[in-house]
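re: ur question from yesterday

yeah so i grabbed the chain u mentioned. its 93 aa long if i counted rite. heres the sequnce exactly as i have it in my notes:
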Amino acid sequence: MAHTWKVQIDLFNAGEVRSDEPLTTAHATLTTSAGTTLNGYGRARRNPGDPDVPEVGEELAAARALRDLADRLLRASSDDISALEHHRVHLAR
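ran it thru and got these C-alpha cells back, copy pasting raw so excuse formatting
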C-alpha cells in the first residue's frame, strides 16, 4: 500500500511590503497521509548590490525551509523511536 505525503511551500517577498528590505521567506508544510503536519522555515536576504532576481531568493529560501523541515522530521522520528525503545535515540543526518 502506497502512502502520499504532500509538501507545500509558501514564499513571501518582504520587498512587496518594504522596498528597502530585500528579503524572501519560505514556509514549508509537510502533511502526511495520516494528517500529521510539520513545518519548516527559511529565508534569504539579497545583498543590495546584487542584481534583483527574485527567483534566486525564492530558491534559496525554499531550500532552507526544506532543510529545516527535514531536520524537524528527523527529530520527530528520533523521538518516536525513543518512545518505543525506552531510551534516547539520536539519528544521524
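noticed a couple things. The chain has a mean pLDDT of 91. also The first strand starts at residue 6 and ends at 13.
anyway ttyl
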